[in-house]
Amino acid sequence: MLVVKAHAKINFTLDILGLRADGYHEVETVMQSVALHDLLEFFPTSGGTALTVEGEGVPAGEDNLAYRAAELLRSHTGTGKGVRIRLVKVIPAAAGLGGGSADAAAVLQALNLLWDLNLDWPELLSLGKKLGADVPFCLVGGTALARGIGELVEPLPPAPVMGLVLVKPPFTVSTATVYRNFDPGHAGRRPDNMAMIKAIKKKNISGIAAGLGNVLEPITTAMHPEIYIIKEKLLAAGAIGALMSGSGPTVFGITGTDLESAYRIAGRFFQENEQLLVTSTFVG
Questions:
Q1: Which of 29, 120, 213, 270 lies at 20 to 30 Å from 135 by C-alpha?
Q2: Which residues are catalytic?
């Protein structure tokens, strides 16, 4: 048996540079792993893929990215080996936190070891890209700048340890719809990725908080004004910066250098129907 943690992610910045010829959007985003994670257990079998899920919000069959990752490896390598996977789901689903991508990345790495496939790093990254734009970052983890559709991942010096409060409202959003509604002429304030990277290198938490930016946030907020309200509530509770992660709807608040500050701010947050989670940045 092999046990692997699959860590969620947040976006410190997310900018869209344009529409590509292949129909995807060209992005530039500074991404960060967080301590919040799913747990996956792998049991070798004689053939096939079986997946059981403990937790809410995700299927156990072919629609699950973890299952698809295992089947992609089987078809790509032609191996006759199989696996039974137990997925303990903790990361909220369809939340902008990359939970499915993290699970897929964990499967690729774990089965490469468990099945003795000996795939090299570029090959794993290429397979990850086939599964989803965030999977390559989840394979790399830590702090990184991602370009292209997200598959070009440049590791950065680790961000300082920071407490985080994650707030997921009681609805989901369609990533495709959010990207489709993006209008570069009305993008508003664009994040300064180089300034963010500079703040990360200097371990400047105030600079990181001041540099948070996501061009998709106004689009999702226009559909769901609750996101703006959550941001304001986090700031009023004492967060030094707050931002929607990815295409949403989860909003994170940066709270300082330790978990104690995050728990204090979470205790002040007036919770209605939202899911409230306390975590921290994670560098592995």
A1: 213
A2: 9, 134
